[in-house]
Every structure is written in structure tokens, then in C-alpha cells.
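Review form for a predicted model. The reviewer records the input and the model, then writes brief findings.
Reviewer: anonymous (R2)
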Amino acid sequence: MPPVKMKGDGRMARDPKKTLMRLLSYMRKYIPTLIIVLICIFLTAFATTTGSESLGVLVDEYILPMVASGSTDFGPIARYLTGIACIFGLGIFAAWLYNFLMVGVAQGTQKGIRDEMFTKMQRLPIRYFDSNTAGNIMSRYTSDIDTLRQMVSQSIPQTASSIITLAVVSWKLLSTSWILCLVMVITVFCIIQVTKFVVGKSSTYFVGQQKSLGAVNGFVEEMINGQKVVKVFNHESECKERFDELNEELCRNAYNAGKFANAMGPINNNLGYAQYAVLAVTGGLLVVASGGTLLSLGNLMTFMILSRSFNMPIAQISNQINSIVMAMAGAERIFDLMDQEPEADDGYVELINAAITKGGNVVPMPKRTGHWAWKHYHKADGTITFKELKGDIVLDHVDFGYVPEKLVLKDVSIYARPGQKIAFVGATGAGKTTITNLINRFYDIADGKIRYDGININKIKKADLRRSLGVVLQETNLFTGTVMENIRYGKLDATDEECIAAAKLANAHDFITRLPQGYDTELTGNGASLSQGQRQLISIARAAVANPPVMILDEATSSIDTRTEKLVTEGMDNLMKGRTVFVIAHRLSTIMNSDCIMVLDKGRIIERGTHAELIAQKGTYYQLYTGAFELE
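Model under review:
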């Protein structure tokens, strides 16, 4: 098989041999099973070749002597055929056993790869999911994994069986007639060259097929999620055109791959028939010319049958090469995900449960007490200090860009003291959500500092940092499960009573009790049976049960009606008491009571102050509040 590369146009980028070896490494723990499989394959090959060889022996040693002597004693033939039948029975059992064992190997390997891929996916940064569609990622778990299953369960054992059969048959052929073997080598060389040409043509298309399939899956997933938007804006025809383009590319790659793959069988079969004719003519001439001394009639029959047994494995290997190439394409996409750089975390400051003494000292506690503290290990002297978590967050001259050459935030400085409510106002793209992403360390800043209670957030372990932050987003994400389970997602060890208390705090308890099964109501499809406001209230309850010292509310009321907004706002006000809060809002009515309002424009803070102070300045905020112009 010629080496295949893939770049952005769908060609394989890595070394296929290394990819195959890496894939086979997942089967290492099944080595004892694979040894048994190899033994069974050898027994199957032995039974096959012995059966082919038995016809020549039957003619030369049993039938011709009986004809010559006129004997009617069929006992020796019966005993010989009984032995051959036992060998065939052993081959059948061995073939069944190794196929049965390979099913377990294939499923176990598939599970191991899928487990590792999902584990790795949990460690990837948000940036990866921002740049890859969900459908494209999903296709790696489905179609790409399935190609690996087919390769492990079918292609690998069949290829191994074919190679072993070739080795055994070659030895038998050579011991039968070296002259015919020489003729056969020449014809096999011609067959291999033709096979190599066809495989080279189909390989690129098989790789492109996997890439196109990922693109189609990604587009379909987007259309399913955005079906309402598509219908509202009457974009059905445009979506159909785009799908036709992607589907046409998939069809073209699949057609070309299948065209060459399907041609492989007929080409090999016809070349095999031509080879059979050449061998038959050459062998017949040897039998007649030598009077049976160079080659007997029985040996000629054995050789002709074995030659078919020789060609069959070659045809099987040719057919399996296409499956292996497709599996390599899937493996490339899987390993591409696995080889992504994980989210870096060099933090060493931990978040712990604590109790605060009357003297203000921090005492570590094994269980949640409602108080938090930072556990700081000092490498210089090996000491450990504890610092109470108060929620003091400072952004000091921060610059950031999603790509290095284009800054989204420029020289941003923010001072959020414990218990303060900080609001961000600005047009879409001004950088409001970006600030909250940086506080969560979904992205790392280009310049400046972000400090949390005086600690650089780079020194805080990401899991502990995010555990101290509660986030309520504009787009709610509810998971398949009960309402209670969705609320408990904020704190997995929360009791039912704690979840109900959180729902009451978020003003969600009343509507939940009116659901068919109350808190035990099953939610599916991101809570599609609930209104946007109800989903948002559950999201607030989820944040409430976590009871974090710092809250981030990202336009949590922008897509709900005014009446529901009042309930949500009351729920958020209850949640914000005694916490440091960052609020992003388009509706200025929800942030008038903020301790500090910051107006952003093109990544810079252009105004800051309380509602009254900004109104008095009669700047951008004043114009927004009075309706001189609106946020976009």
C-alpha cells in the first residue's frame, strides 16, 4: 500500500505506519487472546491447505491404484476421508473461535479508545470547542470509531489469516512443483501491481470521505438545533443548497472510493482466472511431456486447487486494504482530538472548606461550612498558609485577543471589592463576556494581571478557581434527567432539601411544584418542554445550590418577558446578597443598583461609576438610559 498523506484537503498528514502501530497499542492488553487467535488462524489455514492437498493424494494413492487393480475395497478411502473430515471440522471450529474472540477484542479496544477520547475531551480548552462544530466532534465518536471496530474485528484477523494461509500454501505449492511456482510468481507479481494501482487511487477518496462525513454531521447538527431560526427567516432553500454542496462532496468522495474499491474484486477475479488458465496449460504440458515424472496428474490437481487457495487470500487482503485505509482516516481524526494540547494548569493554590475563628484565623475543615479559604503552598520554605476567600477580584491593565494579532480587550482595569455588584454595559462585541471568560480562565491574558484576593489567578488551580465562581448564562444548558438532578448539578453532594431551598431562593419552587411530577419531572432536549424563563430559573437554582462567593450573570434576562424577568431578577437579587457579582445586561433596569457600572466600547472602558454618577456625566450611558441610542 503506498503511503498516504492528509492535509487540509482531506489527505492524511501523519505517517500511516505510526498511526497503525499506535492503534494496535490499544490491543496490548489482549495479547493472550490474540495468541489464541493466531493459533486458531494457523489451524484454519492448515485445514484449508490439507483439504486442498487431499484431492491429489486421493487420486494418486487411492483412486488410480484401485482403477489399475480393479479393487472394490472402499475401506481405505473411507478412513482417509474420515480423517480429512475431522481436519475440516477442526478448521471450522478454529475459524468460529477466532472470530468469536475478535469480537471481544474489537469491542474492548473500541471502548478503551472512546473512554480515552472522552477523558481527553474533558481536558481540552474552550478554544477547541469554539473552533470545531459539535457534529464534527460527534462523528469521531460514531462513524470514525465504527471504522476502527470493523478493522479490528474483521480486517485485521482476515488479513492475518490471509497472510498465514499464503505462507502455508506457498510452502505446499513449492513442495508440489517448483516449475509451476515460478510461473505463478510472475503472474502474482502482475496482479499485485494492478492491485497497488487501484488501492492508490481509492485511498485518497476514502480519507476525504471521512472528512466530508464529519462536515455533513456538523452541518446537520447545527440545522437541528437552529431549526426554529431557519423557519422564522425562511432560510430553508439556502440551508438545502448548503447541505447539497456538502452532501455532493461526500457523495463524490464516497462514489470515487467505492468505484475503485468495487472494481478491485472483479479485477482480481478475472486476473485469477487468467492465472488459472496459464497454470493449467503449463501444468498439462509438464504432465504429458514428462509422462508424470516431473508432475503427476494428482499433483497437478492439487496445485490447481492450491493456486485458487493462494489467490483468494490476495483478493481478501486487497479488499481489506480499503477498510484499513478508511479506518486509518478515522484514526487520524480521533488521534487529532487526542493530541490536542490539554488545558494547561500550573496552579498550586487550592480552595478548601474553612471555619473562621473569632480572632479571624482560618481553620481548615473537612466538610462544607459556608466559608472558603485559599490554601497556599510556598515552595521556597515549604510552609502552608491559609487565606480567607472574600471575593476581591482585580483586573490590572489587561490586554487580550482570541488571536494574537487582534486584541479584543485593551488596557482594561477593574476593581471588584467583596460584596460589590459590578455591571458591564456595551454593544455586542465590546468585550463584556470576554472579561468573564478571563476571570474563569477559559482563556489566558496576553498582558496585565488578574488577582483574586490578592492572588494571581495563574497560581490558582483552575478547578478550584471555577468552583469559587457561579455562572448564569444567557443560554441555559439543561441535561437529560430530573429537575432535581439538574439543580444538583451545581453541587453533586447536595441533599434534596438543599436543592429545594436553592429553588426557593431562585423563585423556581412554585413553577416546579406545578410540573407533572414536580422535582422528579424528567427533562429532555435541553428542557424543551419548559419556557425560556423557567429554564433560566432552574439555571439560577443550580448556581444557588453551589453557594459560590462570586457570581457571574451573563445577560441572564435578555431573552425573557418582562413578567418573568421580575421573577428572575428577584431570584438573582436573592442569589447576589453578600457576594461579589459581575453582571452583563442589555436591560439597564437590572443594573441600576450596581455599585459600579462600566461602559465598554471596542475593548476599552470608556465610562465607569454608579448609575447616578453616569447620568450626571451625560455621556454614553446617559444616552443609552434616555434612549438617545440603543445597544446593538
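Findings: The chain is about 60% helix and 15% strand.
Further findings: The chain has three domains: 16-206+261-338, 350-388, 393-626.
Recommendation: see findings above.
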